[in-house]
């Protein structure tokens, strides 16, 4: 059975969508880390923080879905 790490490596090589999602997720993570370095956030910064967290989670969920679909397709192909 393929591990998540192995599937993600295969998707990095074969899927532009996966690479773009992963790059965007890392970029959002860096933005979030910069915001979290501040001791006090303005109300506007709090909103931005929440928005980044939601967007980051959505990207992670989509990447997990791509991993699941890739694995299912591989297992289906192997069963034939």
What would you say this structure looks like, in words?
The protein is an all-alpha fold and 80 residues long. Helix content is 86%, strand content 0%. The chain has helices at 4-14, 16-36, 43-79. The longest helix is centred in the C-terminal third of the chain and has 37 residues, at 43-79.
Q: Supply the number of helical segments.
A: 3
H/E element string? HHH
First-last Cα distance: 16 Å
Apparent shape: elongated
- Low-pLDDT stretches are none
What structural class results from the helix and strand content?
mainly alpha
Biggest sheet record: none
Percentage of residues in helical conformation:
over 70%
Strand content: under 5%
Mean pLDDT: 95
* Strands, total number: 0
Brief summary of the model shown:
The chain contains three helices and no strands. It has 80 residues and is mostly helical. The longest helix has 37 residues, at 43-79.
Strand-helix topology:
Layout: H1 4-14, H2 16-36, H3 43-79
List keywords for this structure.
mainly alpha, about 0% strand, about 80 residues
């Amino acid at each position: 059975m393929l591990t998540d790490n192995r599937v993600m490596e295969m998707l990095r090589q074969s899927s532009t969508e996966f690479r773009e999602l992963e790059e965007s997720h890392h970029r959002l993570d860096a933005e979030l880390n910069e915001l979290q370095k501040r001791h006090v956030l303005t109300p506007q910064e709090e909103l931005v923080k929440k928005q980044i967290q939601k967007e980051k989670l959505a990207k992670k969920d989509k990447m997990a879905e791509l991993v699941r679909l890739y694995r299912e397709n591989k297992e289906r192909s192997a069963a034939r």
